[in-house]
Structures are given as C-alpha cells and as structure tokens.
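3.2 Worked example (two chains)
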Amino acid sequence: MIADFIFTGTAVVAQPITGSLLVLHVGYSFWEGWIVWSMVLYVITGALWLPVVWMQMRLRDLASIAATKGSPLPPEYHRIFWLWFAFGIPAFIAVAAIVWLMIAKPQLALFDVGVIAELSWTLKSVA
C-alpha cells in the first residue's frame, strides 16, 4: 500500500512535468491530437486510480479483520475485489493507449495544429 503511494504518486506528479518538458524541448504543440488524447487518457486513468486506493485500503482492513478473527473473508471483500479488478481493466487499456499514442504519434485531425492555426488566423483577419 505504501509502495503504491510512493511509486504511483511520484509518477502521477513526475509524468506530466517531464512530458511537458519533452513536448517543449522537441517542439511539439500541446494541441497535437496524440498529445491531447494522451492527456485525456491520463486524467481518466487518474480518475480510475483514486477509487482504487480506497478499495485497496478497505480490502486490507477486511483481510486484517478476517485474519485476526480466524474467519473467512467476508462477501464485502469479494465484492470490492471485483470492483477493484473492474476498475483496473479500463485503466490498463488507457495506459496502453497512452504508450501507443506516444510511440506512434498518429495525426488526429480533431486537434490538428494546422486547422487550429488556420482558424486562429481566420478569426484574427475577421476582427
């Protein structure tokens, strides 16, 4: 549990900082589609991780109580465990997608830099 906070918590803080520095260093725009979608997926992953932290603490407490009493794990433990597992699947998929986006750097027209620059130029010329 403490290791999860140390390693995951450090990554949660360090990844956006180092990622932003790399974007600036390489000269990419933060509005490139693959970067925008990476950030969206990063936020989704964080939103899935926060409830998992509570679930892990509750699972630990239920297991500790069962061990102290010498009784089997209660039904609540199994219910929370399956929720924990269910949250892990989309979080894993999101992280895998982020890795793919960073490697492939696909051109995604929704946030195409050229389209945004042209729109900005058009708005300036109208004003």
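3.2.1 Second chain
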Amino acid sequence: MSQMTKAEKPARTLEELERLAVGSEAFREGYEQREGMIRLGAMLKQMRESGGYTQEALAARTGMTQPAISRLESGFGTHVPTIDTVMRYMHGCKYQLIIGAGHGAGADSAATPLDFQAVF
C-alpha cells in the first residue's frame, strides 16, 4: 500500500474544503449538503480547544469515545448527530446550547433579532 503524499491528504479545515470545491462539481454538491454539519463540527472543535481539552479528555468527561468526538468535529460522520449528542459534547466543554429562530433567510439573517430562543 502506498503512502499518501501531502497533496493527497484529506482536507482538515473548512478553508481547505472550500478550495477543493472550486474544481469539482460533485464535491461542491456534496459539500453544500454537509455544510451545516461541517460548520457545527468546526465550532465544536473550537470550543473543545478553547477549554484546553484533548479529544481523549473530552471523551472521558462525556462518556463518549474519542472516535465519536473526532467524527462529530469533522462534520463528515455517516450520521447526523442528535441534539442530545451536541448538548452532551457542549456540556463537557462547559458550554450551553442556545437555539434561536428569527424571521428571514439569507445573508442578512445574521443581523435579524431572534423571535424565539431556548437554552439547554
């Protein structure tokens, strides 16, 4: 079995994935379908790292496995995580999950005030 060259290694950041998407229609379509999960995974990884936890340490705190933590952070697992799984991860990092909803969709919606909000 041959070793991967640096150019063949899988992308590890959202920016690397976006660069790859430029040249492949199939990749771009798949990426667009998973974009929300990729962004969630990147956010979760930032939380873990800001708390100074390794994947192994967080797995021990949450009762999850290190591979499960890795899949969740990558956004490319075969299953979409449940809210309970995301809450468990976040609580392990000492964060709360806040879900909100506001009218509007698109680029301007980030500035839209929330009509509904729940803290878990």
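3.3 Remarks
The chain has one domain: 10-119.
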